[in-house]
Inverse folding.
């Protein structure tokens, strides 16, 4: 990964120098703001090339090559949570859990305040049936402001591991926030009546 990062920085620098040179040839008085805009354009071009390449590898079934490309993308854009998540998903679904976990580590290091990043790690642990680990990450996502239906995964996971009182309290919290939340209403009623949680 370090070698890939160095290579990407070299490509980015070369692209920036080339575009800056072309710009200077047309207009020698390039301001710092213009130079930054040139660099941003270069990054955008490289992102588009790599995203297209990743899609091509994915549709060809070359999943680990797609992972390689997605890891180049997050060097260019460390805050692209979806590219980290896609790379990790492709890695672990190809049975390379060590690589997936390393990708998740980099995701969190680059995005320590992102609820989306914490959710993706929690989602991974639910998929590999490590629910207690999942709950820690999902709680982190909630603490960082996770919103919308993805919050439901925390309540479902609490119920699945037998933490019924906490699950019921969580669903009631969601109902207090949104009384029209049908999933929260249904799950709170199930747990109050002693019924098993609904399949997710």
């Amino acid at each position: 990964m370090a070698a890939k990062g160095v290579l990407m920085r070299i490509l980015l620098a070369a692209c920036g120098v080339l575009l800056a040179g072309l710009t200077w040839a047309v207009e020698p008085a390039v301001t710092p703001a213009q130079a930054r805009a040139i660099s941003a354009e270069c990054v955008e071009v490289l992102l588009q090339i790599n995203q297209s390449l990743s899609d091509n590898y994915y549709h060809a079934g070359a999943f680990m090559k797609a992972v390689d490309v997605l890891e180049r993308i997050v060097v260019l854009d460390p805050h692209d949570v979806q590219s980290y998540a896609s790379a990790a998903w492709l890695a672990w679904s190809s049975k390379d859990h060590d690589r997936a976990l390393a990708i998740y580590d980099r995701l969190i290091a680059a995005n320590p305040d992102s609820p989306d990043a914490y959710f993706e790690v929690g989602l991974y642990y639910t998929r590999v049936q490590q629910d207690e680990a999942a709950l820690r990450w999902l709680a982190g996502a909630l603490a960082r402001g996770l919103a919308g239906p993805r919050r439901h995964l925390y309540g479902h996971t609490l119920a699945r591991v037998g933490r019924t009182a906490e699950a019921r309290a969580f669903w009631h919290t969601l109902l207090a926030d949104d009384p029209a939340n049908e999933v929260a209403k249904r799950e709170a009623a199930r747990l109050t009546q002693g019924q098993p949680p609904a399949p997710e």
Summary: Residues 113-200 form a domain with the Serine Threonine Protein Phosphatase 5, Tetratricopeptide repeat fold (CATH 1.25.40).
